[in-house]
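User: Let's play a game. I give you a shape written as tokens, and you guess the letters that built it. Ready? Here's round one.
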């Protein structure tokens, strides 16, 4: 529902391509959740991340010490 409020019907269309996010954006989003105590949903909307599970995966990789690929 949040994507619809932000971008209307366009936000509900199924994407046919993978979104690419910069390494900087990924770390900023992770920091927002871990350091600033923002919710995953809030950060997903703020940064325009396609799905909350994408951010959750980045956080898992970060916590495991793995590199975040671009």
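Assistant: Ready! My guess for every position:
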């Amino acid at each position: 529902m949040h994507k619809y409020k932000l971008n209307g019907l366009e936000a509900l269309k199924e994407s046919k391509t993978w979104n690419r996010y910069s390494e900087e954006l990924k770390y900023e989003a992770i920091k927002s959740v871990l350091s600033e105590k923002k919710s995953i949903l809030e950060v997903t909307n703020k940064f325009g991340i396609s799905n909350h599970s994408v951010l959750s995966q980045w956080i898992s990789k970060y916590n495991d010490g793995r590199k975040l690929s671009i």
